[in-house]
Write a structure and sequence with these properties.
Layout (H helix, E strand, L loop, with lengths): L5 H9 L1 H6 L2 H9 L3 H7 L4 H8 L1 H11 L5 E5 L4 E4 L8 E2 L11 E7 L2 E6 L6 E4 L6 E3 L14 E10 L4 E10 L11 E8 L4 E6 L4 E2 L5 E3 L3 E8 L6 E8 L4 E4 L12 E7 L2 E8 L3 E7 L8 E7 L13 E5 L5 E6 L2 E6 L4 E4 L11 E5 L15
Antiparallel strand pairs: 1-2, 1-25, 2-3, 4-5, 5-6, 6-7, 8-9, 9-10, 10-11, 12-14, 13-14, 14-15, 15-16, 17-18, 18-19, 19-20, 21-22, 22-23, 23-24
Helix pairs in contact: 3-6
Length: 383
């Protein structure tokens, strides 16, 4: 996506003859290439400009273009959020979070189409959808659970994403009540409810047949929430990958790829190159990135990248965790809280990531696209 200087657009708008003779589709195309910060300023130029920037068709066009380039970054500490929204990922700025004082500790539970799902780390009871590019936010109504949400005895998890089948944004919240110490974890009480942005209501979807062990889900294919999970207790515990199908509103296990020495590696789930991926990480040894070419088909797993022991630069950290694959194929990876490296597959080298100016000393990292999507509307207009 090409970024045009704001001065060019200002000159176009200030010359009535020029702007009046430009076809509307060309004007729309020019504006769709601009960053959100510029577009927000142009809302007050005229009523027609305001109407254009509020239209679903334009918001969808701008979103599509924004998703063709590398996203922005969010850096999270326990109490603050920082945005890194320049193309070089070189400078952080503290985000003004209007509801920040309402949260004891900040948790980012998902990012979709420029919206962040933000909640309180304690029990994820106060949930907000927030567009960091526009500053617009919405607090969700509290879900009513049959399972008591006691901070010291429950574990909660959230999933946030877009459901293409209903053209709607959804939030799924699950609760596990740890009220039976030293018993089989499968016997613990659990429950899940799903929220629809269109209806602004929560709906009960019943018990969760797995123990979800990650606080935030990965959303893939505009249909599935995916978590790392477990079954059993103690030595009989097995690590699983589970998905919630928003079409069928049911949980299912996702078959994992077969790897050598699976018991000694740690796994994480994520998205690489728009495909559902599993990262197998052996401490101080190697990282394998597997991608599922056809979701739900175990035979479609393919090993995409192996980062070998010769790439492990520092013996003091445990794992290299993949975070994001850039459009040029480079992989941004984490080697500790707030410590990043970049892996270049063609050269097979790992380099320290250039320091982000004004970034906190430690942080958790997330990605988001700059968009005009509002948490007060349903999904973007479909083609």
């Amino acid at each position: 996506m090409v970024s045009l200087p704001c001065s060019i657009i200002t000159n176009v708008l200030s010359v009535p003859y020029v702007s009046a003779n430009l076809p509307s589709d060309i004007i729309n195309d020019i504006f769709a290439r601009l960053p959100v910060k510029s577009l927000v300023r142009f809302r007050c130029v005229s009523k027609s400009m305001f109407a254009l920037l509020q239209s679903k068709k334009f918001i969808k066009k701008h979103l599509d273009r924004a998703m063709q380039i590398d996203p922005n970054l969010i850096l999270r500490t326990d109490f603050k959020l920082f945005a890194v929204d320049d193309e070089q990922w070189s400078k952080a700025r503290k985000l003004k979070v209007p509801f920040g004082l309402c949260l004891e500790k900040v948790e980012v539970s998902g990012s979709c189409h420029g919206l962040l799902c933000i909640s309180d780390q304690r029990c994820n009871e106060d949930i907000y959808l927030f567009n960091p590019s526009t500053g617009v936010y919405r607090k969700l109504p509290p879900p009513e659970f049959d399972v008591p949400t006691i901070e010291t005895t429950c574990f909660t998890s959230l999933g946030f994403g877009f459901h293409g089948g209903e053209n709607d944004y959804k939030v799924l919240r699950s609760i596990f009540l740890y009220d039976k110490p030293f018993e089989d974890i499968d016997s613990y009480q659990c429950e899940a409810r799903i929220y629809s942005l269109t209806t602004d209501k929560w709906k009960k979807i019943g018990d969760v047949p797995f123990h979800i062990s990650t606080r935030a889900a990965v959303c893939i294919a505009d249909r599935y929430f995916i978590w790392k999970a477990s079954r059993g207790f103690g030595r009989r515990m097995s690590i699983l990958v589970v998905a919630f199908d928003m079409d069928k509103e049911e949980f299912n296990e996702v078959g994992k790829p077969e790897v050598s020495d699976p018991t000694s590696c740690q796994i994480e789930v994520g998205v690489m190159n728009e495909q559902f991926s599993i990262f197998h990480m052996w401490r101080g040894e190697r990282v394998e990135i597997w991608a599922m070419k056809e979701f739900g088909v175990k035979e479609s797993w393919k090993k995409m990248i192996v980062i070998g022991p010769q790439m492990m630069m520092d013996p003091n950290y445990m794992f290299l965790k993949p975070l994001y694959m850039k459009k040029n194929g480079e992989i941004l990876m984490e080697k500790g809280e707030g410590k990043l490296v970049v892996y270049q597959p063609q050269q097979q080298i790992v380099n320290d990531f250039t320091a982000i100016r004004r970034a906190p000393r430690w942080f958790f990292l997330y990605t988001y696209v700059g968009s005009l999507v509002s948490p007060f509307t349903d999904g973007p207009e479909t083609a």
